[in-house]
Structure formats: C-alpha cells, structure tokens
Write a structure and sequence with these properties.
A three-stranded antiparallel sheet has the order 1-3-2. The protein contains seven helices and three strands, in the order ααβααββααα. The chain has helices spanning 19-46, 50-60, 69-76, 80-92, 114-138, 141-147, 158-165; strands spanning 67-68, 96-101, 104-112. The longest helix has 28 residues, at 19-46. The chain has a single domain (17-141), classed as Orthogonal Bundle (Arc Repressor Mutant, subunit A). This is HTH marR-type domain-containing protein. Residues 20-156 form the HTH marR-type domain.
C-alpha cells in the first residue's frame, strides 16, 4: 500500500468535483490496477482474452440459462459487432453455445458449456485471490470509505441486483 492514491475529499466543497466523481475516479483506477494483474493470469489459466473472460463471468452468474447477445453487449458496454467476434472465439474454443431465442428470429442466446463451467470451477479461486490482493494493495481504509459514497445506505440491498437483472 505504499503508493496509494490520495483519498477523495469528503465533501464537494473540498475540490472542484463532487465526492461521488472523485470516488468514481478512484474506482476506475482500482479497476485498472486489478485488470493489469488479471489479464496475463486469465490468458494463462483460461486461454481467453480479458474481454472474453468478462463474458464468461456474466454467463457463469446465470446458472439456469444464458443471456441474449444484446443484453451481454449492454452489460459490458460493448458494441454488438465486437461482442459477436468475442462470442465466436469463445464458441470456437468450446466454451459457449449460441442458439436462436424461441419466438424471436433475430434473438440469439449465449450459454456456457460444461467445459467452461469446469474451467471456471478450477481457476476462479486463483483469479479471485488475484483481485482481492490487487484491491488490498491498491486501497487503504480511506479509499474504501470513499468508495462508500458511490452507494449510499438509502439505496437498499435489492437495488444493485435488480439493476443487473433488468
């Protein structure tokens, strides 16, 4: 934790931007630090790119089924054309399947294969430890406290999962 970024100010009056924007910038920087450490490990252990890994993670969170391509693109903030290429790579590796959505000629649903599920079971512990270690190295108590400004108490527990499911 030697070179931790300066903690965001505790009120909007302490700087040019509000506390939430400062916390957002801290979150982006922490995410970047995690991604730098995670990228080579994902490639080595899973044989996929970081972006493809994100697709696998989203699908792994859906044990009962898959996700439509359009929803995956929305959740990842990626153009559909880029996602189509990533899904093709994952399908070629035997990690996902694509199928038409019943009743919708244009809808395509992507689902993890058993091979992908097994691979994630075998590697996710080490990947999670890498994330935990990177975040611990990057964020001290002041930074963690500042992150709390992004999700105020009054939001409630159901808000985050509800937003992700929509």
């Amino acid at each position: 934790m030697a070179d931790l970024p300066e903690c965001p100010a505790t009120s909007a009056e302490d700087g040019l931007i509000p506390t939430e924007l400062r916390a957002w910038m801290l979150m982006l920087a922490a995410t970047g630090a995690v991604e730098q450490q995670l990228r080579p490990l994902v490639k080595e252990t899973l044989g996929v790119s970081h972006d493809e890994f994100l697709v696998l993670c989203l699908l792994a969170d859906r044990p009962g089924g898959g996700l439509r391509m359009t929803r995956l693109a929305e959740l990842l903030g990626r153009p559909k054309t880029r996602l189509t290429y990533q899904i093709a790579c994952l399908q070629h590796a035997g990690l996902v399947t694509r199928a038409s959505v019943c009743g919708d000629k244009r809808g395509i649903e992507v689902t993890l294969t058993e091979k992908a599920r097994q691979l994630l079971r075998e590697t996710s512990g080490a990947l999670a430890e890498t994330v935990r270690r990177a975040m611990t190295d990057y964020m001290g108590p002041e930074q963690r406290s500042a992150m709390g400004t992004l999700v105020p108490e009054e939001c409630g527990e159901g808000s985050v999962s509800g937003a992700a499911e929509a």
